[in-house]
Amino acid sequence: MKSITTVALILGLALTAVSCQHSQTETPASTATSDPNNLPVYNIPYSATSTLNKADKKVLILSASPRRGGNTDLLCDEFAKGAQEAGGKVEKLFLDDYKIDFFHEEHSINPDTVMTSGDQAPLLVKKMAEADIIVLSSPVYYMNIDGQLKTLMDRCYRNNGLAGKEFYYITACADREESTAETAIFAFRGFVVCLPDPVERGSVKAIGMGRKGAINDSKYMAEAYNLGKTI
Ligand SMILES: Cc1cc2nc3c(=O)[nH]c(=O)nc-3n(C[C@H](O)[C@H](O)[C@H](O)COP(=O)(O)O)c2cc1C
């Protein structure tokens, strides 16, 4: 009896993993190179240069920290500066300004379903679908991303407009271990790998950044600015 339960559990987990790959993504090409700055989990295709053959690239920056003017928010501003100088049409959204309801079963039938009055998730997901490049940004919260961004990610479920986007990642944490920053990168990538044909373009992982504003005197500001210029 116990072994039947174990087999059923393993089968269930395997099916769950397969359903992410099959319902929302193509399996990434095995020849893809990974971002040299990130752990090679998932093998999401990486490109150091733009894969988009257009002049006016739309860049959407999702600044998810609730701390306005905090470390990741300032890195987003630097990225925006660089991207604007590189000719991008940049829009930065401070997620805490928006009302994003939790995902519910009704959303899997119609992703545009608004659960409560004023729910702005469909508006945000539409902006993501209209963008060529999406910057996902969050501080590390308990070895993960924060709730604002995770809630928005959940609301992207079954949205058909998120194929072929380029992604950048920005995170900051108090810890001085790069492996702590990688926990946020891992969460960003868990979302991105479930979208069709994504491309990773790079990341900023700011470690040792506990205090608000600590980022100002760090090398990460220039890193974010220079990364923005690569669009
Ligand atoms: C709720 C909460 C959880 C946190 N969890 C972690 C953590 O697990 N590891 C860590 O190194 N820092 C953690 N931090 C610190 C933040 O990641 C750090 O202060 C970061 O610079 C905040 O970015 P922000 O200024 O953009 O909000 C946490 C902070 C908060 C408020």
In summary, what is this structure?
It contains 7 helices and 5 strands; from the N terminus they run αβαβααβαβαβα. By secondary structure, it is of the alpha/beta class.
Structure description:
The protein has seven helices and five strands. The protein is about 35% helix and about 15% strand. The model is unreliable at about 1-30 (pLDDT under 50). Helix 2 (about 70-85) packs parallel to helix 7. The chain has a single domain (about 30-230), classed as Rossmann fold (3-Layer(aba) Sandwich). It is α/β, with parallel strands linked by helices and about 230 residues long. It has a five-stranded parallel beta sheet, sandwiched between helices. Flavin mononucleotide binds near residues 71, 174, 175, 180 and 209.
Number of domains: 1
> What's the architecture, going by CATH?
3-Layer(aba) Sandwich
Shape: globular
Beta percentage is 5-15%
CATH fold-type name: Rossmann fold
Unreliable spans: 1-32
Output the CATH class name: Alpha Beta
- How is the biggest beta sheet arranged? 5 strands, parallel
Radius of gyration: 18 Å
CATH superfamily: Flavodoxin domain
Would you list the SSEs in sequence order as H and E? Answer: HEHEHHEHEHEH
In the sheet with the most strands, the strands line up as 2-1-3-4-5
Average pLDDT across residues?
87
Bound molecules: flavin mononucleotide
In total, the number of strands is 5
What is the overall number of helices? 7
Q: Helix share of residues?
A: 25-40%
Amino-to-carboxy terminus distance: 56 Å
